[in-house]
Records
---
Amino acid sequence: MKSTTQWFTVDKAGLAAVATRRGVAPLILEPVQNAWDEEGVSRVALTLFPVEGRRAQAQLRVEDDSPDGFRDLADAYTLYKQSYKIGNPEQRGRFNCGEKFLLSVASEASIISTTGSIFFGPDGRKLGRRKTETGSILTATLKMRRTELDDALVLLRSMIPPQGIETVINGEVLEQRKSIAEGVRTLQTEIKGEEGGFRLTRRKATLSIYEVLEGETPHLYEMGIPVDKLDCPWHVDVAQKVPLSVDRGSVRQAFRLDVERHIAEIMAKDISDEEAQGGWIGTALESMEDTDAIRAVMLARVGKAVTFNPLAPESNKRAIDAGYAVIHGRQFSKAAWRSIRSADALTPSSSMFDDGKVESSPDGIPEIPESQWTPAMQRLSSYTQDFAQHACGVTPTVKFWKDSGLSFAGLCGGNAIGFNVAKVKITDQFQVDQLLIHECAHFKVSDHLTSAFYDECCRIGARLRTLEATL
């Protein structure tokens, strides 16, 4: 029986089908990120042009000046060989399959480095003696339609080069972008496990936030390499390994949400009202912990606002009249409300605006007993009962208080009308009638801020024309 030392055989066409699941453009990033990771590199230059006279073919060349060059040429054709970068969370590589994905869509390719050279063609691969003095040169003829080439150039130009490494795309030096904000946060990352492979851990890393340039879409970056789209309005670069799928094409939803939560906290004080309306902010609120940031985000998202209080309809209406937004429970998720309440980011309408109700005896202030009523109080009591009976068919109990600390001049509650003689001149016919019209209207309507209350006040006022009793 014929045997071989190899357990597996990889079909190039099948690997290409897997590699191009997200298109060809992301594969072009691989040689750039590998060059950035090399020690001592100061320049990486990439060119990508259509091949004249050959349809759907593009010529790629990536050259760097790393003193060590390509460390092991076998890395170019050995799938899943353990990368030397696996143990360093601040280097991008880990699967050691980026070059293989790129080569799977090439019709021919070569790598020339300080350690030798290797050529790939229709007849397979072969080693060569050519070497470079420093750095490596990768060339490849790729199967790419013109639209794919254009997409690749857009993606390449959106890279954020590390400081100190000049990165050139088709002769154009990429701008060393300046972040608009930074913050150190604890995020999940991948490190080398005890028995090889990976294990997830949490580690502090710098998050750098960048403006999105014209033609770009917001992306999550792993040390300058775009790896997945974000819902927030900025690019976000994480300065350590990001937990990625094998094809480097996506991150876990939980990780993305964690990043966006941190971004909301970092950018809270600078976020615009328009930016704060994004659905991502509503989701970020569910896990935000920084109370100052939560309050800032809520101010940008809803402006001056109070929460709806179903037990204080007048407070809700007064808030609206004062230009406040009244926020209902359904406008945020339960988790977001927990964050909002923990930060005291919103208060009930009744905490800021009068609910139309008065407390007759705060701090135990008693009413004046009938035995201590003055003659003027007795006359007002009789007049109040005649007024209410004539206007509303009700004969109320009358009460008196005298305390300037009480908030009311008059009140109506149950079957009683009360006066605070410290705030109303009980011998003034006009002032008393004005107060009684208001209080007697409450026998029928409790809410001041309704047309029904307005109508009842008008009805009682008109009814006074036939009232004979006076003070």
Note: The chain has a mean pLDDT of 87.
---
Amino acid sequence: MAVLGQASRSRRRCARAAASLSLAAVALAGCVLFGSGEKRYAFSHERHVTLEKLDCANCHADALASEEPGMPTRDTCDVCHQGIDSAKPPERRIETLFHGEDFAAAHATALSGEVVFSHQKHASVLACSLCHQGIESNERVADLRHLNMAACTSCHEEKHAPEACATCHKEIRETWAPPNHRSNWHRMHGETVRANSDLTADACSICHTQATCSACHQSEKPENHNHFWLERGHGITAMMDRETCAACHEPMSCQRCHQDVRPRSHVGNWGAPHDNHCLVCHQPLGQEGCVACHASAKSHLTAAPKPPDHYAGMDCRACHGHGQPLPHVDNGDDCNSCHL
């Protein structure tokens, strides 16, 4: 399949590989406190940032100067907490955040070793709140807002930062195929497309344009488009799910074929005498009038004239079809359009 060649879109090609590499932990990692299962650590960013008006660097001393976001140390926390923890219950004291001198809480979302990220480079040119949106009012770890790949790539594009895959990835490049593109992907990818998933890994548009799909499907038929499909099966599918057909076929595709090839069911006396069967398949009609189906039937191009005692304002359906003969299907058209 064709892959977008423009340099400005190269960033999108990387995103398919990064679906599981959420960049939420880019800056949030320095502030997130996780336990296993239930929340083990009580921590309020709102109290520290909004009420106490502390700068991020007061607790995350290395955040502006280190490749990794600086996590608070026991000595840093003790500057304030040594005098206030004695009045708190044990489970809310600062020691619950540490194992000895080591910070006990885990990052919100650990970055994969595949991701290349420098906290110092970002923190030196961006405001903390740009990545840590909502951190100033955060009361619970579960409420921390995560960034995603789209947020990072959008920021890179807006600020004219490098967008090549190698900017943020060690191995992933434009020609790299995601793991789900292996094995039976060629056969099964249609199910992913139709699922309309919100996952980055399922976003075909990251690497492929609509022209990619069209070019492939015009030259390579779906697996079910065999001889039986041509002779018997496609009509049933078209009645149940015409939108799927429309992914590749336009209405003219059907018309061109069926003008020359009569459906197998359309044998002699098909639906006679009233031909009401037509409405099962041929409504709504793409073209009005009898010629929608009978363009070449000369007998249908010359309708019988109305008797002398009939005039245009009469209600034809009051009689015809209710006791009087109706030799053809009534599709709701104005009878006077044919019967003059």
Note: Confidence is low (pLDDT under 50) at residues 1-40.
